[in-house]
Amino acid sequence: MPRITHISLKVDDLASASSLYESVFGFRYMSTAHSAGHVSRNLSDGSTYLTLMQYESEQAPEALLSGPGPVIHHFGVEVDDLDTYETRLRDAGCEILSGSVERPPIKFRTPAGIVAELLAHNTMATAGKR
């Protein structure tokens, strides 16, 4: 069954944002990863990840998907069959923004403008082991 695994926030200062969520809410640091154009830090409440993303440039195409400045960037949904869900998204009128079945995650925008992504099952379980 699909499940929401993470919510990603675009932040201006990764260290400051991480400190806030760790000290105020008790979220635990899980991992930091460098991706194309940004650094992601995964924190967890024990069941869901809060991913903080700091982009090298506010002008990076992916940074602009959700608008300028610090914002909720997207949420992630793990599914057991990326191909089936990508087809369902297209059939529902969603726009594929990046990624593919061969190169996940698959970022998409709903007809209402919300950005989310599909991940393969157990993707976030391994994120905490980096």
Topology:
Elements: E1 3-10, H1 14-25, E2 28-35, E3 38-44, E4 49-55, E5 71-79, H2 82-91, E6 95-98, E7 106-109, E8 115-120, H3 123-127
Parallel strand pairs: 1-4, 5-8
Antiparallel strand pairs: 1-5, 2-3, 3-4, 6-7, 7-8
Summary?
With 130 residues, the protein is an alpha+beta fold. It has three helices and eight strands.
Protein architecture, described:
The protein is of the alpha+beta class and 130 residues long. It has three helices and eight strands. Strands 2-3-4-1-5-8-7-6 form an eight-stranded mixed sheet. The longest helix is centred in the N-terminal third of the chain and has 12 residues. The chain is globular, with a radius of gyration of 14 Å. The two termini are 25 Å apart. The model has no long low-confidence stretch (mean pLDDT 92).
